[in-house]
Fold each of these.
Amino acid sequence: MFRSKPSLRRPLAVLGAAVLGLGAAVMVASPASAHHSEVSVKADCDTATGEWVLTWTVNSYAPPGVERYKLVNVVGKSFVKGEGTEFSLPGIAVTEGNSYPHTVGTPLVATHRLPGETNRALLRVKAKWENGHREQEFASAEIKLGGTCVKEEEPPPSRPPR
């Protein structure tokens, strides 16, 4: 009986195809996730005034070599009993003209005060980087406040003991 030696050709071909497929998937996926923005928000109730104090943060990420970006779309909105009102934030606003004033990796931070009865607020942004890449979808954050921030009543003056 004649037996031939097992060939390594087939297992090597399968392994090579798997490596090529994985490499192609990484090349296609990487550029899409390299540029992006993130928005976050934190809220505190200022009981001295009965207002919500919201701190908004926008972070931008890009591949190495891309250092600057601008905001091309910014929408801020707060809601009281379902009725929405737009607001703007100093420092987190649409960039006019052709400049790219913001540094990738350096957060933009703005504080905003809202009435105590505000139920929720949201901020949505789109960025464009100096290499021409532009976000297609909004990066956003929303916070539900519940409309329960109230001014603390001052205690009545205390009487000295008799």
Note: The domain at 34-144 is CATH 2.60.40 (Immunoglobulin-like).
Amino acid sequence: MLAIGAHGEQVDKIGVPYREHLRAVAEGLEPFGPLVVMAGWLHDIIEDTPWTAAGLREAGVSARVVAVVDLVTRREGESYEDMITRVAADPVAALVKIADNAHNCLPERLAGIAGEPERRRLEERYRGARRILWPAAPSGSVSSIISRVNPALVAELPPATGR
């Protein structure tokens, strides 16, 4: 698979093979169809590997998937909040970023972050992103992703999401 090969031997912040993060994000997006699942697999490829949007298109990745992957890629000099706001404007990109955020917030992943200040900084960053992303998607979709990727976040869902 393109995503796994592109990320090679990369590991995440807690030393787990990066492919496990990609798998979890993609699996959380399965109810939304193959296009969204593929975007989940590829969501970090432009940001974290030498791949470009043009290269993905040349490799045969659909234009819509490439557009979503490009949307969820943070631009040079762009603040995290500006990127999240930009992502929230696209319904599919918002779903991908919600799944990414949910997996990054798994209690066991956060517990593996070295240093309490860094852990708290990331927790607040991800919480702030959820305040922007969750209203950008249908509540049932948010609930579906959260229940699949990180059930610990269910308590944060507003009552209207059908908990």
Note: The chain has one domain: 2-151.
